[in-house]
Amino acid sequence: MSTAPKPPTDLKTVVESEIKEWHFHIYFHQNNADEHRAALQLRDAVLRLRRDGAFVAVPLLHVNTSPIGPHPVGSYEIWTPSETFASVFSYLCMNRGDLSVLVHPLTRDQRKDHEVRNAWLGPAFPLDLGTLPVRSEEIPSQYHSLKLGYSGKDSLTIPMRLKLGSNIEYLLQSEKEAARAPARE
User: Fold this and answer.
1) Cα dist. 98→6, 123, 148 in Å?
2) Domain ranges (residues) in the chain
3) Residue 101: strand, helix, or coil
4) pLDDT digits (tens, 9 = 90+) for 80-108
5) Please, how many CA atoms are within 13 Å of residue 102, restricted to the half-sphere of its CB?
6) Contact (CB, 8 A) for 42 and 27
7) CA distances from 125 to 40, 96, 101, 162, 177 (A)
8) Beta bridge partners of 42
9) How far apart are CA 167 and CA 174, in angstroms?
10) Angle at which helices 33-51 and 85-95 pack, to 10 degrees?
11) Alpha-carbon distance 74 to 39, whole Å?
């Protein structure tokens, strides 16, 4: 029998623990010229789409042509704030070809982010988690000049979220297939 902890439902706790920044790691076998080329073409496409306003995604300048850190093959990182996470995820899901993509949040728990809070587009690769700290003192926030992610302002306050939730419950009353939220305690 599983002993998983009960998920929190206190709105303040949930809002304060919300993930604000994410990494996508695009993997390619460094000795496979076709995969390397495909990975770089995908990176260039992401950069063009960022320029054109499709989403906010920041690939690191450096492309790792050999294993580095926990990553066992060639790779590069794309940072995105939660504000455009769905758009970047959707684009990579539809356009990654045969490449594998590791998706993970940025929190203080770097090892857990890579090991249990991760997702894969395509086949998973084994990671060398021993290269990562278990817990960092600070949230690994990036690109503060953008004022997005952890350095941005929360656009939905708790009162706004309460109102939004009540409105959604009201609107879904006539939807036969939508589950109903339990009454407030």
Assistant:
1) 37, 9, 31
2) 18-151
3) strand
4) 999 999 999 999 999 999 999 999 999 99
5) 25
6) no
7) 19, 15, 9, 40, 38
8) none
9) 13
10) 140
11) 10
